[in-house]
Predict the 3D structure of the following.
Amino acid sequence: MARIGVFICHCGENISATVDVKKVAAAAARIPGVAHSVEYKYMCSDPGQQLVKNAIREKNLTGVVVAACSPRMHEPTFRRACAEAGLNPFLCEMANIREHCSWVHEKGDATTEKAVDIVRTLVAKVKKNKALQPIQVPVTKVALVIGGGIAGIQSSLDIANAGHRVILVEREPSIGGHMSQLSETFPTLDCSQCILTPRMVEVAQHPNITLYSYAELESLDGFIGNFKARIRKKARSLDETLCTGCGLCMQKCPTRRIPSEFDAGLGLRPAIYVPFPQAVPNKPVIDREHCTYYRTGKCRLCEKICPTQAIRFDQPDEIVEVDVGAIVLATGFDIKHSDFFPEYGYGRYPDVIDGLQFERLASASGPTLGEMRRPSDGKVPETVVFIACAGSRDPAKGIEYCSKICCMYTAKHAMLYRHKVHGGKPYVFYMDVRAGGKMYEEFVRRAMEEEGVQYVRGRVSRVFERNGKLVVKGADTLLGARPIEIEADLVVLATAAVAQPGAEELAQKLHVSYDTHQFFAEAHPKLRPVETNTAGIFLAGACQAPKDIPESVAQASGAAAKVAALFSQAELVRDPLIAVVDRQAPPVYSSCVGCFLCQSACPYQAIEKEEIRGRDGQLIKTVAKVNPGLCQGCGTCVAFCRTKSIDIQGFSHEQVHAEVLALLNRGERDA
Amino acid sequence: MNALQEKARELLATKTVRVVIGYGPGSGGQARALFVREAAQARELIFDETCLQNLAVYLMKPDVRQLGKAALVARPATLRTLLQLAAENQLEENSLLALVPGADGVLSLSTFSALEAQVASQDNELSVAEKSELEKFAAMGLDARREFWQEQFSRCLKCYACRAACPLCYCTRCTVECNQPQWIPVPAHDLGNLEWNVMRAMHLAGRCTNCGDCSRACPVGIPLYLLNQKLILDVSANFNSRSGMTAKADHSLSTFKPDDPEDFIK
C-alpha cells in the first residue's frame, strides 16, 4: 500500500496569495494513498526540508510530492532531502503549483481547485514511481576548443594550465581572430597585437595544447564526457614538419594581387601566404582558389625555390578523430560590411569603410603602415565622419539589438585619427552613447572634451559623392532636428556585429540551440551564461552575443572553469531518466520486434542493435538497446515504438497514464 | 505445365527452396494461398486476376519461417512489401526468392537490388480510380467524413482480421494488447473502435504499400484502404517519399534531421 507524503509550500506569498494552501492540504489528505499532508511557508528552507525528512522517517513514506515551484528550481533540493532521509530520490516528485497555477491565475476557488488537481496527478504518478539508480559515465579529460580568437585562446590556456589536454581548432591559417586585426584597444589605447601575441605564442608552446589551424569541425557524436569529434584539417598544400616558415615562397609567388582577408580587403597578399607576420603557426597555406598552378596547371615556382622541399600540391584534406570530454565554442562574430547599406552607397564608394577596415588603416602592421591614408587615392583625410549604429538597433534592417562594442571603438577611432592627423576634423553621429564599463565613460568623455571629437546626436540619412567629397546628410536632434551636411574625405561605419556565417550549421552539428540572429543560446540568461542547453558544451566570447575583449576573456575563463570542474571527477553522475527497451524472460525475451524505426528517430544516435543469443550461440532475436550514456531522455523513440516496447524511466507509460486518468476521473473525487 | 508451375517444380526438385508460396483455386471463384512443398504438387499453382492476396504476410509467421527457404509468388504490391520489410530489418537479403510471373516467363529475384530494380520498373502510383475516389471523399467536408467513419467503425467487431491480413502488422505484441496501461479499450464500442482503427492507420502511415488486403479481409466491409491511401498521398506530398521503394531505412515519419524545416509547428 502506498504511503505518500504531500508537502505544500506557500513560497512566501507567491503561492498562498492566490491559492488557498490550507484547502489544498486538506484535499490532498483525502486522496487515497496519501498518508501525510502539510503546508509550510518556505518548504525549501532548512526547517521545511526537515519537515519532509521527519515525515519520511516517522510515517514510513513510500513517496513524496512537494507542491511548490517548477522542478527546474528545487527538484534537486528535495530529492537530496529524501535521499538523506533514506528514501530513493526518484520517489520524490514536484507538483508545480507556482508557475503552472498561482502565478498565472487570479485568486479564487478555481485556482485552488487547479492546485488540488495538480497535486492529485502527481500523487497518482508517484504511486507508480520506481526507485532508480544514477548512471555513472567515464569522462575523457580532453577539451575541444572551437575558434582561436582571444576567447578560444584564453579558454585553451586556462584549461591547459589546469593540467588538462586541449585541442584548439581554428578555421583560418592562424589563430588570433579579430583581436589580431585591431590597432589599439579601448579604453587604454594599448596596442592590440602587443598584448595578444604573447598569448598566441603561449598557445603554440604549451605542452598541453594541440593546435589544428586551418581546420574545421566536420561532425560531432557522443555526449558530455564522451564526445567523438571529427576534425577536417584542410590541406595547407605543404608539409608542416618540413616548412621552416622562412617566407621565401611568399616573396616569390607571382600571384600577388589577392585582397588580404587580414587587412579587411585594403591590402594585397600572394597566393601562398601567412595572414600576418606574427601568425601562429607561422606556416603558409596555398590559397587554391587563386594559385596559378591550381588554376592553369603551370607555375610551381614555390615548389622550386622552397629550401626544404615542403610544398605538396597534391596534399588531400585530412580527417582527424579525437575523443573529448567537453567543448568550448568560441567561434566569434562577424560584422556587416558597407555593401549592406544602400543609403551609404552600397559599398560603391571606396572611402566609405567599416570599422575593421579603419583598424587596419590605423594599424602599424596595416596596408598604410599606420599612416592615415584613405583607400581611394591615398590622401590624408581632413574630415572624417564616423557613423555609429550602422545597422544595429534598426528593426528595419532586421537587427534590433545593440552591437555593444561600437560606441567604444568609434570613440577610439576618432581619437586615433586625431593622434595621427592633428588638424583633422572627426565627427561622430550617434543615437546614444552606451559606455557602461570600467573606465569606459571616462574614455568617451576624453574623446569629446580633450581630443576635439565633434559628437552629433542624430542619424545619417544619406552619404553621396559630390566634387570628390563624400557628403554626409543627417540631422542634429539636440538642435531641434536641424538638418546637417558635412563634406567628408572618409566615412567610417560602425557596422553591426553579427553571427559568423555558418554559425547555424555548426550549432546544428553540435545540437546547440541558437537565437533568431544565429548567436548561440546560453542555458539561462542570468544564472547559466556560459553553458549551452547541451551538457558538456560551453560558450565563450562573441559567438553568444556581441562582446568586447574584457567580457570575452572573462567568459572564456568562466567556460574554462566549468570544463576544469567537469574534469575534476573521474566519473560523471547522470540522472537515470533515460529510455529503456523492454526485456523479459524467455521465450519472449523482448516485445521489441527490431524494426529499428526508433534508430532513425533518435536525435542522439543512442539506439544500438543487440543480438540476443541462446546458450548455443544461435541468434534468437535482434532488438533495440539504448546506450545509457548517449540517451538524453527526450522520448522521441517512445512515441515511435508501435509495440510500446520503449519506456522513459521516471516518465513511463504507466506513470503518465496514471496522471492523465487522475485528471479525467476528477469528477469521481472524494468530496 | 505453365512457366510458373515449371519454375516451382524445378525449385523444389533441386531443393533450392523448401516451400513455394503461391496461389491455388479456392471456393467462390476466389484464389487462396497454396503452400507447395512437393515438386509434384506444383501443377496446382495458378496465377490469374483472382490472385489478389499479398502473400508476404506469411513470411512473418514463425511456423512458415520454420519450413525453410521459401519462394514467393509476388504481385507488384507484394514486391513493395518485401522491400519495406527489408527496410524494417525483417527480411534478410537472399533469404527468399520472389517469383514474378510475366509475359516472358517467370522472373526470380533474390537480391535487394534486383527487387528494387523490379519495383522501379513497375507502376506504383495510385490508380486514377483510386485517386478520384479519394478526391470525392476529401470534398465531402469534415462533418460528413466524421459521420461516414463513425458509421463505418460502428460496425467494426474488433476481430483484428485487418491486422492478421497485413504483412506489416508483424509485431509480436500489438499496442491493442498492451494492458499496463490499457491504451485502447478492448470492447467493440464506438470510442474503442475509433481509437483502434485510427491507431492502426497511423502505425501504417509511411509504411503501407497499398496491397488492399486489410479491406478484403474485413468481414463487415469497412473501406480501410481509404485511410491508407490518403496517408500514402499525404506522405508523398509532404516528404516526397513512397514506402516499399528501397530496402534501405528511409522512414518518412520517424527520421530525425537537424535541418528539418519543422514548418508544421505553428
